[in-house]
Structure formats: structure tokens, C-alpha cells
């Protein structure tokens, strides 16, 4: 993948997948890699950040930043906290937690990311190669890890309350 990206001559890449982008790609000369993160940076870093944001801040957040080889610490292109999110479901029709979790990160999370990057990063930009950015204050914030099953269940119950 590194060779294909290098050969393309791309100056800007949007990384939308989960996981870790290989450092060999992030270190390509002249390439800036944008990641959109459903946590409010610099406060909420790491994994399961949409759920962690709901649990610790009471609302989702979304941030776009320029990736570095370190986790969620690149210069910010924008960050905002969104309105509190609650999706009530009839108790008799509520899926199990695994289905809700997969649905959250397959449908809701990508919509939040897409709307933010288009409306707050790309539409206002006149030159994608020179997007303005601001360094994060790395002295604040917490790096969260994937939630344990019981905590994840509590977060999903808060997000998808039974009616």
C-alpha cells in the first residue's frame, strides 16, 4: 500500500478506517493524512470514543486532525461537541448489545464523521493542500481503551434507552 500511495503523488489522504495507520505511510514526504475521530480532542483519545464521550462528557464529540505515528495527537483541523444523543428503542424490539455496538460503529459513527469532515473541514477550505491546523494541547485529555463488556452495556443502555 505504501508504494501505491507514494506513486500516486497524493498530498492529502483521508483515513476512515479503524486501527493503526502504518508509520511508513504517515512518514511519506509531502503526504498529510486526515483522520476524523468521534471524540472531542484533545480530551477524548483512543478507542470506543463515541461511547466514552457519551459516558464521560454526556455528548458525542467529533474532531479532524492530521495523523502522526502516535495515537490521536496530530494537529487539529477542527473539533466540536455535538448535542446529546439518545436513540430510544421499544424494549420488545431492542437488539442485543453486540448488534447495537456493530450498528453504532457501522452506521451512526460514519455519518457523524462524514458530516463533520465535509461541512467543517472540506467545504470551508479553498486549498486542501494547505488546510489550517492547530497543535493539540497534549497535556490534557485521556486515552481510553476498548470498553469492557459491562461498561459497554451501560453505555449502550444510555444511548439506546428502552421505551
TrEMBL record:
The lineage of its organism: unclassified sequences, metagenomes, ecological metagenomes. InterPro entries: Formyl_transf_N_sf. It comes from freshwater metagenome. SUPFAM superfamilies: Formyltransferase. This is Unannotated protein.
Amino acid at each position: 500500500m505504501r508504494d501505491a500511495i507514494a506513486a500516486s503523488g497524493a498530498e492529502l489522504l483521508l483515513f476512515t478506517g479503524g486501527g493503526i495507520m502504518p508509520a511508513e505511510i504517515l512518514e511519506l514526504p509531502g503526504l498529510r493524512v486526515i483522520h476524523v475521530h468521534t471524540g472531542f480532542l484533545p480530551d477524548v483519545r483512543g478507542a470506543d470514543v463515541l461511547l466514552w464521550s457519551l459516558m464521560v462528557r454526556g455528548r458525542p464529540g467529533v474532531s479532524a486532525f492530521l495523523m502522526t505515528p502516535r495515537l490521536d495527537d496530530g494537529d487539529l483541523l477542527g473539533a466540536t461537541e455535538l448535542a446529546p444523543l439518545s436513540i430510544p428503542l421499544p424494549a420488545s424490539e431492542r437488539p442485543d448489545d453486540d448488534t447495537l455496538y456493530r450498528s453504532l460503529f457501522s452506521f451512526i459513527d460514519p455519518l457523524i464523521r462524514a458530516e463533520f469532515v465535509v461541512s467543517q473541514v472540506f467545504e470551508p477550505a479553498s486549498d486542501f493542500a494547505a488546510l489550517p491546523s492547530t497543535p493539540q494541547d497534549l497535556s490534557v485529555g485521556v486515552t481510553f481503551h476498548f470498553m469492557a463488556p459491562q461498561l459497554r452495556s451501560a453505555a449502550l443502555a444510555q444511548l439506546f434507552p428502552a421505551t
